[in-house]
User: Fold this.
Amino acid sequence: MLANLTSSERQTALVLAGGVAVAGLVMAVLGRSDVLGVHGVIVMLCGGFVAWRIMSSFYAAEPTQDRSVSYYDDPIKAGIALAMAWAVFGMFMGVWVAAQLAWPDLAFDAAWSSFGRLRPTHTSGVIFGFGGNALIATSFHVVQRTSRARLAGQVSPWFVLLGYNLFCVLAISGYLMGITQSKEYAEAEWYADIWLVIVWVTYFILYIKTIARRNEPHIYVANWYFMAFIVVVAILHIVNNLALPISWGHAKSYTIWPGVQDAMVQWWYGHNAVAFFLTAGFLGMLYYYLPVRAQRPIFSYRLSILSFWGITFFYMWAGSHHLHYTALPHWVQTLGMTFSVMLLVPSWASAGNALLTLNGAWHRVRQDATLRFMMAAAVFYGLSTFEGSFMAIRPVNSLSHYTDWTVGHVHAGALGWVALITFGSLYTLVPKLWKRQGMYSDALVEVHFWLSIAGALIYVFAMWNSGIIQGLMWRTYTEDGALSYSFIDSLVAMYPYYIARAFGGLLFLIGTIIGCYNMWMTVRSAPHAAPERDAPVTPATVPGE
Amino acid sequence: MPELFHRKLERSAVLFVLGIIAAASVGGIVEIAPLFTIDETVEDAPDMRMYTPLELAGRNIYIREGCYACHSQMIRTLRDEVERYGPYSVAVESQYDRPMLWGSKRTGPDLARIGGKYSDFWHVAHLNNPRDVVPESNMPAYRWLARTPLKTNDLHLHLAAQQALGVPYTAEMIENAASDAYGQATPDTDYAAGVVERYGEETNISAFDGVTTRVTEMDALVAYLQVLGRLTNAAYENTAAPETKPDPDD
Assistant:
């Protein structure tokens, strides 16, 4: 990873890694009487490890070639490996917590292994570990190819990638130790949040600078989505995580937002984490890898514009649909519901645009499981956005809220849309990046596809059933006007579905492990004899400029 | 021609980013800012109490263990919820809650009004092993709470931070945070008298886990569970009749 860095860049990298290690030391000293100290040691070890790696090949030969004539792919390769490692971890934790709901004693008699602490390791592991690394890696790839320019930095892509993973490690190791803000999908504490801001601002600057270098007059649509993802996630993250630590030596902080305002800020964040992390970023992937794989241009440029601005504007109003019938003022609930229903228009514009792009390439969808991954992702995206708008309608929400239906809906999006589009994109990207003829085994891609589909469908159907049964049991009255079922009656009815859900998740996890194996074998296989040209536009290659 | 305009926008990264910020800011500003300025958002409740240091510590254990992932603390304005759990929740009840713990999922029942419904003894038995009390339960067992002493030496920092954010803790409360936590779990001591003096007669003084010789995390968590829904009577006064379930036939 260092072979491409000059001596002065290696110095910069060393200073940064050393700085992180020193920051870790300071945290360890200040937090010596608190769990913060443990995190200080972890930061110190991570910074120290990277510094050691830099020093161990500090005097290796410097790059001799002009680097601007090639794309910068090393951080992308590392990002793909990290994404797949987090996928296995996060999905394994998901299967474990799912099994705990069916068999509650499937924990050690210890705090770290109880459901409440493991659950955020699953959600953060898959959303931030798997999803985030996949987004960083693919965005680095897409921005270079669509701009026909090399990344605008040598050290900063590594800083973004490794810094982001340090955030993931802090977040997830923290939950196991009981460090959490309890804000859903923003559980990491204040110091990890500050670190993520630094990493994210670097990511933004790097991205914008690379776009500024482009050799194309227009910014391609995939980059619109990646830019929206980077910019809006920064806004959401900062506002939602404003908090006052109890001291510099403690991990614990209190959010500045009280009660009802906190609820609104939290779900404004929570719903838009879905919108800008799990939707916008992955639409960026879709808008590049789907047309590349299908060898068809995007169906409609106008639909792309409509859906992009629709999603960017409407989504930010929708969060309050998580708070129907609560103590949040009625007018805010109504606004949330209204915009959630309107969101169906740009959402289906995107899904339709993707599927219509496949017109003329349906024979490829049949033969090529990689393209089928992306087609299925677009279908799941369309279905789950429809379901989301439907569930945001107040009376529907009175049945679905607090039940497993919500969990099923989220997983229709997470497994069916986010994971499938990622696997389709990575199966397209890996052979290109490592300059191989194709994936090691097309048959294994096929097996992965069907395991994913089967797992996602079993999961989602189990949760639809359990959620609707639960919701109906809670509101069923006897003829005398008394509630028919106690709460525990409704829980007993859930057990068969909890077992089915764990099984569906297990199938999905097995598919992911097969995907890892296939990618690993691809990387190890022999390079393509004559790879197609894949390099930025430079004055040397364009004599006219 | 809107398309021509967009063609221009696509040529400038800076303009494009400004466009994204503008489009994405509106919703949040319109929905969040008025919650601070419209007075009716949070009701007045002169009887509203604050969490004692022990209850606050218990609340932080509830957060730490992720209880909110399976238990809501928000009774909706629906007939079946009000009949099952009690009067629907009002905003003032979580006025001092940082963060709020309204929750999003009920794998277990709502806890907004759990305080006082069961004995301390029941809670301790239930937390030690839920299946001893409710055989069908899938809740984790929290045995380590009863064997882990409560950390009280930093409680004053917690109260001070809350005070800085606007919760009306007094300097005396902050100063006595650790001894008040001890006192609330040890009835008939001078420390217990101090808690009542500072936090009021309504304060629930009890040997929560049945052992008065030391204060454990179990004491704190049970103290917190027992105060849920009992910080103010606002929910029982002047609330409109709950909404009925939507009826598909009308």
About this structure: Chain B is about 45% helix and 0% strand. Residues 241-248 of chain B have pLDDT under 50 and may be disordered.
